[in-house]
Design a protein that fits this description.
Elements (H helix, E strand, L loop, with lengths): L16 H21 L6 H21 L8 H12 L4 E6 L5 E6 L5 H17 L9 H14 L11 H7 L19 H31 L3 H5 L6 E4 L2 E6 L11 E5 L1 H24 L4 H6 L11 E4 L3 E6 L4 H12 L4 H5 L5 H12 L4 H8 L5 H6 L1 H6 L2 H9 L5
Antiparallel strand pairs: 1-2, 3-4, 4-5, 6-7
Length: 407
């Protein structure tokens, strides 16, 4: 974990100011040392979550006049109650350009989120060399009350199952973007805009088709999906696989191979060809000789597999951000005519959830789901398939027998 840029709130005044100052200095040294030795120990998303949780807790403490490090159990208990009640907190953070901004965070936090906050607070205390007792009655009873009042059931992303995924899947595209001779009659600026819009739609359709199919077949989390590289596609006489180098439950990079069906491989190849075409068109537009452009190495040989597309109709070098995945899914779902409630329920993990549900209905065991999706805890895939399991349970089978549906 990277410590917050600002040191925690100072300790309350005490009769021995020298000892107090010495303790604060020791805390600061411990935090700096922890940041140094753990720089490569945590995934980027884990660091981001820890930093955000700690900033939230410190901002809440500052607003109520409490000390955040070391935190008194009563302070932490009151924080738990405030989060469960949906208290708003103004938190200072930085945008992607490094500029300072104030965010107002409000709304009822679910017990699972509050437990994550507690884990982050405990982590901060360990990093500072301080003790933290999560089992203290002030904390335990507050958390228990939140669970009883709010319930522990977590919101689940809507599963995007195979039949529905086919509805969202963009159609196959030609090898080059469509061209309308009428464009040549238009003013130069308007003609350029029409061509750019056409290329943008063409490239996005090819990318999104490959993206959805790969997401479903690999059961990748959204961060794992956008981290895939072209080099991860491995072609052998036995078939084509994609190698998922790292996962949320595989931070050390043992990796796993996921098989790809011919439909998916064809979609990937079409997207890679379009990516290469886009880059060569860019070089030609810069005035480079056609012979030199044709002899240049393909940009589709390495680098991020799924990339952002500029509004001018050019593929960027940067990987598609993970936050773009739910946006793409909802856009495709709305275009496919899904109900607004169904569109709103989609998230970056919807393909993962839907694939797990299809596997379960096809007879896969929970252990099979764990192996396919990289889950360590069987409760996670069990949550995704709870409704399907109920339909196959003992009472459901009894009902079918009694109604004459089964012999």
């Amino acid at each position: 974990m990277m410590p917050p840029p600002d040191l925690p709130a100072p300790l309350p005044a005490a009769h021995d100011e020298d000892a107090d100052a010495g303790r604060q200095a020791a805390i600061a040294r411990n935090l700096r040392r922890h940041a140094e030795i753990s720089a490569d120990s945590y995934a980027r998303n884990t660091k981001r979550a820890l930093d955000g949780d700690i900033r939230l807790f410190q901002a809440w403490c500052a607003g109520h006049g409490h000390c955040s490090l070391p935190a008194d159990p009563r302070t932490v208990g009151d924080f738990v109650a405030a989060m469960a009640a949906g208290e708003a907190v103004e938190v200072e953070s930085r945008d992607r350009h490094g500029r300072s901004r104030i965010r107002r965070l409000a709304g009822v936090r679910r017990p699972a989120t509050i437990e994550r906050y507690l884990a982050s607070i405990a982590h901060l205390h360990r990093a500072a060399g301080l003790g933290f007792d999560r089992t203290h009655p002030e904390i335990r009873q507050r958390l228990r009350g939140a669970k009883r009042r709010l319930g522990v059931r977590q919101r689940q992303a809507r599963g995007l199952r195979w039949d529905e995924l086919l509805r969202l899947l963009p159609p196959e595209q030609p090898r080059q973007p469509p061209y309308d001779p009428f464009w040549e009659r238009l003013h130069g600026e308007e003609r350029g805009r029409r061509k750019a819009d056409c290329r943008l739609h063409w490239l996005a359709s090819l990318r999104d088709r490959a993206l959805l199919l790969v997401a479903y077949e690999t059961l990748c989390r959204r961060a794992e999906l956008v981290a895939l590289c072209i080099e991860n596609i491995q072609r052998t006489p036995d078939g084509v696989t994609v190698f998922v180098e790292r996962a949320k439950t595989d931070q050390e990079g043992e990796g796993r191979h996921r098989p790809l069906r011919p439909r998916t491989v064809a979609a990937i190849d079409a997207w890679l060809a379009a990516m290469d075409w886009s880059e060569r068109e860019r070089l030609l537009g810069q005035g480079q000789a056609r012979a030199a452009v044709e002899a240049a190495p393909s940009v589709a040989a390495k680098g991020p597999l799924f990339r952002s597309i500029h509004r001018s109709g050019r593929v960027r070098e940067a990987a598609l951000p993970a936050s773009a995945l739910p946006v793409i899914l909802k856009r495709l779902a709305a275009a496919a005519g899904l109900e607004p409630e169904a569109v709103a329920g989609l998230s970056g993990h919807s393909t993962r959830v839907g694939a797990a549900q299809d596997l379960r209905q096809a007879g896969a065991s929970v252990l099979d789901l764990q192996a396919e999706g990289g889950w360590r805890d069987p409760r996670m895939p069990g949550r995704y398939t709870r409704a399907l399991d109920a339909a196959q349970g003992a009472m459901a089978r009894l009902a079918r027998i009694q109604e004459g549906e089964e012999g």
